[in-house]
Design brief:
Elements: H1 7-73, H2 82-85, E1 106-109, H3 115-131, E2 150-154, E3 160-165, E4 168-170, E5 176-177, H4 185-193
Antiparallel strand pairs: 1-2, 2-5, 3-4
Helix pairs in contact: 1-4
Length: about 200
């Protein structure tokens, strides 16, 4: 007579095999998740750096447009739309902030403390204005305008990014302004007198 396992022993064997298969499946799923995360992380990092580079390009492009607007009209724009509505256009397009859901920039306005910097900006263009036969301008006259004037832009996001720009990784610290810094006066003038460049990606 062939001996058979009791019913309860057969059930324990089946349950044990199922439990072993379940453990193996869980381990495999966890391993695949880790490997997938490791593969995706560099792609996310590269995508983030690409957006940050585009942010810097767009910000600097708009800041150059604001400088050209000042050199042309002896005041800063009241709104960014003036950069594309003016004749000639000061920028190719009003690029949105690529890191913002709304695409809106935080605007930087002219303040009384900017007077010394505007004086430097005005002195930079006096020789060019004389060559073009344009009359000179007292830098204080720009402060007599009652409407708020835009001198620059910055991202609204206060998140910390991957790129170090202007000695900071916090997006809202990145100011793209038409007003020159003391160490960048010559570079600012060279950029302002050049026509808009055609480089840079156009992320939407």
């Amino acid at each position: 007579m062939v001996a058979t396992k009791p019913h309860w022993m057969a059930l324990n064997t089946v349950n044990g095999e199922r439990g072993h298969v379940l453990v193996v499946a869980i381990v495999l799923a966890a391993t695949m998740s880790v490997l997938l995360a490791m593969a995706i992380a560099p792609l996310r990092t590269q995508a983030q750096r690409t957006k940050e580079a585009e942010l810097i390009y767009r910000g600097e492009h708009l800041a150059e447009g604001i400088r050209r607007f000042y050199f042309k009209f002896k005041r800063f724009p009241f709104d960014l739309e003036e950069l594309v509505d003016s004749e000639p256009r000061m920028v190719r397009s009003l690029y949105p902030d690529p890191l913002s859901e709304t695409g809106e920039w935080d605007l930087i306005y002219l303040t009384p403390k900017d007077q010394s910097t505007v004086r430097v900006l005005q002195r930079m263009i006096e020789p060019v204005a004389e060559e073009d036969g344009q009359p000179g301008q007292d830098e204080s006259s720009v402060f007599a305008v009652k409407t708020r004037q835009i001198t620059g832009i910055r991202p609204k996001s206060s998140e910390t990014g991957l790129t170090v720009y202007q000695e900071s990784q916090i997006y809202s610290d990145w100011e793209f302004t038409a007003l020159p810094k003391a160490e960048n006066i010559l570079e600012t003038l060279q950029h302002a007198l050049k026509p808009p460049t055609s480089s840079g990606a156009d992320l939407e």
